[in-house]
Amino acid sequence: MLLTESLWRDEAFSALLAQHNPLQIIQLTAGDATPFIFYELLHFWTGLFGNSEVAMRGLTTLFFLATVVVMYLVGRLRNRRTGLWLAALTLTQPLLFYYAFEVRAYSLLALLTALTVYFYLSPRKILLGISAAALLYTHLFGVWVVATLLLWSIIKKNISWPLVLAVLAFVPWLPSYLSVSRLVQPFLPPPDLRDLATKLGLIGAPILILLLPYWKKVVTDKNFWLFATLWAGPIAGAFLVSQVKPFFLERYLIVSVPAQLLLAGLTLGERFSQALLGLAVAAQLTASLLTWSTPHKAPFRELAVAVKSEIKSGDVVLNGTSLTYFESQYYGLNAKIYSPYSDVPYYVGKVLIPDQDILKALPAAARYWVIELGEPGGMVGEPFPGILKRTEDFGRLKLSLYEPS
After folding, report:
1. What is the pTM of this model?
2. Cβ 211 vs Cβ 267: under 8 Å
3. How does pLDDT run across 5-27, given as a tens digit for each residue?
């Protein structure tokens, strides 16, 4: 299940980065694509509860549950019934549910998005500035949310100065984003309309079909166009920017999910709306329970146990790809990357990979344990220069044992 699965490479990257001290975390993330807020929180969390898979996922689960509470509060601004329905929709939302159990910043990103919208709609303007600044220092896609709210306040001729201050507070981090954007080479093809439709499905956008029977009434709501822009802005903006610099991933689009649920909540009070929302909650719950019980991540923990049970003095464990490096470090194999035919790409988290851990030549050893991953870029580029003795599959992972030729 999601809580106890092995960490995958991005999660292992988070776990390893969080082991550094707070100042080092800021310095390291300045050379990476994601800012430091999540890693700092994870650093202090693991100091209290340890860095096991379950312990670290407990933090992101806490963010998820807090998002449920905040969405209730947003709905409560209208009435208690709306708050309860929004809480139910949030608790069962499949994308939010999945990333509640992943050691990455996405659950925090959803929480801060919901919190920033809540403070924007409520009188708590000082807290709005703090929440918006934290959102910007959590993930690049927080820019879509803050920019939308700031633009909306300008259109309404009531400029939100807390948002302006949040943007000014974020200015020191802009050089980091600009330098990283020049370094990162596209690792995805530009999205097309089929990709767009797929991503809309993955973020749960079909729930917006509930708006159709009540369209004429819903569009007159004072918050409809704000919520619609908060939903569509990140999707459309990321789609267009990704034609040049592709980064169109459903996990980044999690910033649209709170607005998506707020739009669905606008139907409350209309005829049959509660019955339809009940069906939506049931459908989301079914999808989330299926996600909970379906393995998603490669079983690296089991592979590490197998290697440790058989490794002998003089053996060397190698990653046949950079895509398994962080898992091998987290699970105690201390395996370097054997990459004689290509450079390690920046986007895999190279900021945490020492140069001495990238091998261009094969080290001397009695035997070689080579770890590969069954996806593009996950295999040794050429046949491994050794005598293959056996292989063993661990889901998408392949473990091969070689002797020197």
Report:
1. 0.95
2. yes
3. 999 999 999 999 999 999 999 99
